[in-house]
TrEMBL record:
Highest taxon of the lineage: Bacteria
Residue ranges of every copy of the PDZ domain listed in the record: 136-202
GO terms of biological process kind: protein catabolic process; proteolysis
Coiled coil: none
Protein's name according to its UniProt entry: PDZ domain-containing protein
Organism: Trujillonella endophytica
InterPro entries: Lon_proteolytic, Lon_Prtase, PDZ, PDZ_sf, Ribosomal_Su5_D2-typ_SF, Ribsml_uS5_D2-typ_fold_subgr
Domain Lon proteolytic: 237-325
GO molecular function, one term: ATP-dependent peptidase activity
Length: 341
């Protein structure tokens, strides 16, 4: 065997070894790619994504799609990571940025789901506030089957008074309950789907303060004569807030926001209606392009990143708050170009 043949054989063996290692040895990265989109004024598996109880949904057309990012399992192989780095529609990011150490994958998914549910609540509150519905003490939930209010009050009931004493906000509710002896029976006046009602409740005894308790979770938020229920599973994180807000406004407001157009977007929403930045904006733009969207609503703080990866035929609108988003949709309906990034 000549020296050249020996070197060549050694090189082939090394390449084979490296190839095997590259496909088998995991690296601390995950792949992100465009995820599914959901039409907030449409249906998922035959059911409305946003269900309205207590009034008819508006007859609207078009799309207001929230966009998502799909994430691979932890532990990409070296080969998969390298392939992803050369793919314009895949983003390779450190695993720690998606699955923080010290938290299991299931715990991360649960935290992301809780963030989405909180985003739902803010979206509904912002939409109803913009439509002019008054803020009241609203039941968020009844956490225990043996709660004094179980079977008497329901989620989304607005608490109007206790024993005739008004409860316009949670501070007033706490003050009223603080002056009632635990175990006594009180008359709670409430509004449910726009209809007033009263119920007798035997209170529990508060343990962390003086007075009684009703055994409910409450919040101060606008109350409407109808209920809104967002019915979409398998989405996590807060980035759908803007599009959920617009979906609610379209379905129960006074304007057909799209007039048949396909609109997509993303962005968090806070209690004041401000739109916050999100991750994966470029991948979400790819998903919007594939959907056939004409307009993409971009959080103001994501504009620079969005401009670095323009998608053919996709108009970008810069939005810092809900009013900006509504203005962009109005411009689009009128045939004008919205304020861009």
């Amino acid at each position: 065997m000549t020296r050249r043949i020996a070197v060549l054989g050694t090189g082939v063996v090394l390449l084979l070894v490296l190839g095997v290692l590259g496909t088998a040895v995991p690296v601390p990265y995950v792949a992100q790619q465009p995820g599914p989109t959901y039409n907030t004024i449409g249906e998922v598996d035959g059911e409305p994504l946003i269900a309205v109880t207590g009034r008819e949904r508006n007859d609207v057309s078009g799309n207001l799609n929230l966009t998502t990012v799909g994430v691979s399992r932890p532990g990409l192989s070296l080969v998969e990571a390298v392939q992803g780095w050369f793919d314009d529609e895949i983003s390779i990011v450190p695993q720690e940025s998606v699955y923080p150490s010290g938290r299991s994958r299931e715990e991360t998914q649960r935290a992301n789901r809780e963030a989405f549910l909180s985003s739902e609540e803010r979206a509904e509150a912002v939409a109803l506030e913009r439509l002019g519905y008054p803020e009241k003490v609203v039941v968020r939930g009844i956490p225990a089957e043996d709660s004094p209010s179980a079977g008497r009050l329901e989620e989304n009931d607005a608490i109007e008074s206790i024993d005739g004493r008004p409860t316009p906000d949670t501070a007033a509710l706490d003050e009223v309950l603080g002056g009632i002896e635990g175990g006594s029976t009180v008359t709670v006046a409430y509004t449910r789907l726009g209809e007033p009602g009263t119920v007798e409740i035997t209170t529990g005894r508060a343990t962390e303060r003086e007075g009684a308790l009703l055994g409910i979770l409450v919040t101060d938020r606008p109350s409407a004569p109808f209920d809104v229920d967002i019915q979409v599973q398998d989405i996590g994180g807060p980035s759908a807030g803007l599009m959920l807000t617009l979906g609610i406004l379209d379905l129960v407001g006074d304007t057909d926001l799209t007039e048949g157009a396909v609109i997509a977007g993303t962005g968090t929403i806070d209690e004041a209606g401000s739109v916050g930045p999100i991750g994966g904006i470029q991948l979400k733009m790819v998903a919007a392009r594939d959907l056939g969207a004409e307009l993409f609503l971009v959080p103001a703080d994501n504009c620079d990143e969005a401009l670095d990866a323009p998608q053919p035929g996709l108009v970008l609108a810069r939005v810092a708050d809900v009013d900006d988003a509504l203005d962009a949709l109005a411009d689009h309906r009128a045939g004008r170009t919205p304020e861009g990034c």
